[in-house]
Specification:
This protein is of the alpha/beta class. The protein has one domain: Stationary-phase Survival Protein Sure Homolog, Chain: A, CATH 3.40.1210.10. The chain is built from seven helices and 13 strands. The strands form three sheets. The chain has a nine-stranded mixed β-sheet, with helices on both faces. A two-stranded antiparallel ribbon has the order 9-12. It has a two-stranded antiparallel sheet with strand order 10-11. Strand 6, helix 5 and strand 7 form a beta-alpha-beta unit. Helix 1 crosses helix 5 and helix 2 runs parallel beside helix 4. The longest helix is centred in the middle third of the chain and has 17 residues. The radius of gyration is 20 Å and the shape is globular.
């Protein structure tokens, strides 16, 4: 099995090093890393279209790109590797990617790029920042990949996209995997305004808001109770439940509209 690893924290981040070291010990597995040169958190699915991308190789063997997480996976799958991997794995991220975070997440964006190309993909994140219990998280990621492989679920004919969040706990303390839906957050904190040395106003995006929907069954609830959360994701953003209501509005806006 051939695995492509990427992330959004950069190729030197402890999370991707730990993930690589864990997955390379799987029997019969080849692992390649193509990751951003620098931290690209919150870049989502962004692709670089108006400037060239360069690929370099570090002493570790990791290849790094002056672009986004999605750039890394995109160029890897469209020519850099020279073959199609069986699995794309992103992470391990320094902090949670739950609820609304998944829309912005570069970690999820890298995995989603693989999924868009028809490759099964996983995004791994630790719930708390700081890399606490990182070896345990890497071991759990290895276990999940091994189980998916053993159950013959790593199938290019049936690709999937899974978002996984692992509490920062010792491996033996982690509770069983919980299949969850995404929760929701409150609105983000206020923008931070500072003055530059030239007297101009500088704006910094505020931190993520607290959980709004952390009810039982959500990723927030599961991880807060020590479980590893897994949420299957999809790309279709259509609001299917409201299509019928909007059909009537479309007719009023444009009589004869195709609905």
């Amino acid at each position: 099995m051939k695995i492509l690893i990427s992330n959004d924290d950069g190729y030197q981040a402890p999370g991707i090093v730990a993930l690589h070291d864990a997955l390379k010990t799987l029997e019969g597995v080849t692992v390649q890393v193509v990751a951003p040169e620098h931290n690209n958190s919150a870049k989502s699915n962004a692709l670089t279209l108006h400037s060239p991308l360069y690929v370099h190789q570090a002493a570790s063997g990791f290849r790094y790109v002056n672009g986004t997480p999605a750039d890394c996976v995109h160029i890897a799958l469209t020519g850099l590797l020279g073959y199609r991997p069986d699995l794309v794995v992103s992470g391990i991220n320094n902090g949670a990617n739950m609820g609304d975070d998944t829309i912005y997440s570069g970690t999820v964006g890298a995995a989603m790029e693989g999924y868009l190309f028809g490759v099964p993909a996983l995004a791994f994140s630790q719930v708390d920042k700081g890399w606490g219990e990182l070896e345990a998280a890497a071991a759990k990621a290895r276990e999940i990949v091994a189980q998916l492989r053993a159950q013959n679920l790593v199938d290019p004919q049936a690709p999937w996209l899974l978002n996984v969040n692992i509490p920062n706990m010792p491996l033996t303390a982690l509770r069983p995997i919980a299949l969850c839906r995404l929760g929701r957050r409150h609105a983000a904190e206020r923008v931070i305004v500072q003055q530059s040395p030239r007297g101009e106003a500088m704006y910094w995006i505020g931190g993520a808001g607290p959980a709004k929907d952390d009810a039982q069954g959500t990723d927030f609830y599961a991880t807060a109770h020590g479980h590893v959360s897994i949420t299957p994701l999809k790309v279709d953003l259509t609001d299917h439940d409201s299509l019928a209501d909007w059909a009537q509005t479309a007719l009023r806006l444009a009589p004869g509209a195709c609905i």
